[in-house]
Write a structure and sequence with these properties.
The chain has helices at residues 9-23, 68-76, 121-128, 136-149, 165-178, 195-211, 223-229, and strands spanning 2-4, 31-40, 43-52, 57-61, 84-91, 94-95, 106-109, 183-187, 216-220, 232-235, 247-250. With 253 residues, it is of the alpha/beta class. The protein has 2 domains: 2-105 and 181-250, P-loop containing nucleotide triphosphate hydrolases (Rossmann fold, 3-Layer(aba) Sandwich), CATH 3.40.50; 117-180.
C-alpha cells in the first residue's frame, strides 16, 4: 500500500490545478473527477483528482462532516447551493458537470432501500426499468431475470414491508441495475445491515460492479468496506476539515 499526504495550503491547490490540466479532457471510458474542490464558505472540505476505471471502485472514507457525502452529491448533481464547488465530472468521455441529475446516467444506492411502500417488489422494479425494454411481457421478464440475479426469485408480488433488511437491499440493487446506469454511486449502503449480512450484500454489489464494468464511488466510514472494494482509497480525515488535504491510499490488487 502506498500512502501519500499531499502538500497543504497553496501548494496543495497548485498540485490540484496542475493535475486538473493533465486530465481536463479525458478520453475513453470510466469516471473522472477533474480538479474537484468543495468548500463551505472559507472552509475547504476537500480537493481531489481521480480517474476510476470501468469495473473499479473509488472508496472515499472519513468521519461525519469530513465532506465525503458532499462529494457524492456533487458527482450526482444535487450538491446544496450553500457549498462552493469547482471542477468537472466526466463519465465515459461525457462532461456531466452541468447536466441535471436525471441526465447523468448514474445509479445511486443509499443507506435505506427507499422502496415505494404502496407498490409490490415487482412494481418498484418496473418503475425503474430502462425505457428501451418495451411490452408488458418483456418488461415483466426483465424484472424476473433481475430478481433471480440478486437471489430473490418468486418475490415479484411481495409487499416491501414484509422484506428483511437484506432482501430490501437486494431489491434496491436490482432497481438500480435495471435502470442501466453507466456508473454507480454508493452512499454507505451497507451501514444498517448486521455484520454477517453486510459482507454478503457487499460482495454482491462489488461483483456486479466488476461484471458490468461500471466505475463506482463508495462513500463509507468502515475500513471493511474499503477492503472489500479492493482498489483506490481516499481517506478524508480530521485535517481535511481544516483545509489540509486528503490522504490517498492505493491498495495493491
Amino acid at each position: 500500500m502506498n500512502v501519500h499526504q499531499p502538500a497543504t495550503g497553496e501548494a496543495s491547490h497548485s498540485a490540484v490545478r496542475q493535475h486538473h490540466d493533465e486530465i481536463a479532457q479525458p478520453a475513453g471510458t470510466g469516471l473522472v473527477l477533474s480538479g474537484v474542490e468543495i468548500a463551505l464558505g472559507q472552509h475547504r472540505l476537500l480537493a481531489i483528482d481521480r480517474a476510476v476505471a470501468p469495473g473499479e471502485t473509488l472508496t472515499v472514507m472519513g468521519p461525519s462532516g469530513s465532506g465525503k457525502s458532499s462529494l457524492f452529491a456533487f458527482v450526482a448533481g444535487f450538491l446544496d447551493p450553500a457549498f462552493n464547488a469547482r471542477g468537472r465530472v466526466f463519465l465515459n468521455g461525457r462532461d456531466l458537470t452541468r447536466l441535471a441529475p436525471q441526465r447523468r446516467r448514474l445509479g445511486l444506492l443509499f443507506q435505506d432501500a427507499l422502496l415505494f411502500p404502496h407498490m409490490s417488489v415487482g412494481e418498484n422494479l418496473l418503475f425503474a426499468l430502462a425505457p428501451g425494454i418495451r411490452g408488458r411481457t418483456g418488461r415483466r421478464q426483465a424484472v424476473e431475470v433481475m430478481l433471480a440475479e440478486v437471489d430473490l426469485d418468486g418475490t415479484f408480488s411481495r409487499d416491501p414491508a414484509t422484506l428483511s433488511g437484506g432482501q430490501a437491499a437486494r431489491v434496491a440493487l436490482a432497481r438500480t441495475l435495471l435502470a442501466e446506469p453507466e456508473a454507480l454511486l454508493l452512499d454507505e449502503p451497507f451501514s444498517r445491515l448486521d455484520q454477517a449480512l453486510r459482507a454478503t450484500i457487499r460482495d454482491l454489489v462489488f461483483s456486479r460492479i466488476r461484471e458490468r464494468r461500471m466505475p463506482a464511488i463508495l462513500v463509507t466510514h468502515d475500513p471493511a468496506d474499503a477492503e472489500a472494494a479492493g482498489s483506490d482509497v481516499v481517506d478524508i480525515g480530521e485535517d481535511d476539515r481544516a483545509g489540509q488535504g486528503a490522504r490517498d491510499e492505493e491498495r495493491p490488487r
